[in-house]
Amino acid sequence: MLLAWCRSAQQPMGLEGQAIRHCPQSLPTDLTPKGRAMTDRTSGDDGNPAFSDLSPARCVELLQAHTIGRVAWCAANAPEILPVTYVWHEESVIFRTSPYGPLSELSQPTDVAFEIDDLDQQHHRGWSVVVHGQAQGIVRPADVVRLWAVTGAPWAPGMRNLLIRITPSMVSGRLVAAPAD
Fold first, then answer.
1. What is the total count of domains within the chain?
2. What would the pLDDT profile of 17-54 be if each residue is shown by its tens digit?
3. How many CB atoms lie within 10 A of CB 98?
4. Closest among 69, 180, 76 to 133, alpha carbons compared
5. Which residues, at least 6 apart from 134, have a Cβ–Cβ distance to it below 8 Å?
6. Is a pLDDT exceeding 60 seen at residue 106?
7. 8/22 Cα distance (integer angstroms)
8. What is the predicted pLDDT for the residue at 45?
9. DSSP state of 101
């Protein structure tokens, strides 16, 4: 539940009137989920899809091969999830945005989740990769010049001259596949 993930100084309430929990002050430092072996699998013997974890190397391959993802964070007024055109570069997610839009909030250090996926609804299979980490604006002029060239042109129109870097604290992925007939 994204609301439970958000921070707020006013302790907002969830739908059941319970206080929303704050984000942890620090995130894990390794890049694999704690308590889950990368070979865990949920059986599809009952006719339901089977899930398996993707290896960290496969997650990075998918991040390198794709350019569209969604970033989620606790915005000023409510949880927010927005698509971005990105590049995986130097072990980070890098994207350009407008300095005047909602994503500009991420210029200040902000805990985020970033997701890419590919889902085949007809055949009930697909995968998802999630990057948990901290977003922050890139401000050093030398870094801006160097990274401007690798980000490419965003799909969104208008001025997109604010560079944001998501530094991962955890990267994980899952594969889902319908059982064989």
1. 1
2. 333 333 433 333 344 444 444 344 444 555 566 889 99
3. 16
4. 69
5. 27, 109, 110, 111, 112, 166, 167, 169
6. yes
7. 7
8. 56
9. S
Average pLDDT over residues 92-99: 94
Question: CATH code at 124?
Answer: 2.30.110.10
Distance between CA atoms of residues 7 and 73, nearest Å: 10
- Two tokens, residue 6: 């958000």
Rounded distance, CA 20 to CA 32, Å?
26
Host domain of residue 76: 49-177
- pLDDT attached to residue 49: 64
Given a contact cutoff of 8 angstroms between Cβ atoms, the answer to whether 161 and 144 are in contact is: no
Q: Look at residues 132, 3, 154 and name the one whose alpha carbon lies nearest to residue 71.
A: 132
3 state DSSP class of 156: coil
Cβ atoms of 164 and 97 closer than 8 Å:
yes
The model carries a pTM of 0.74
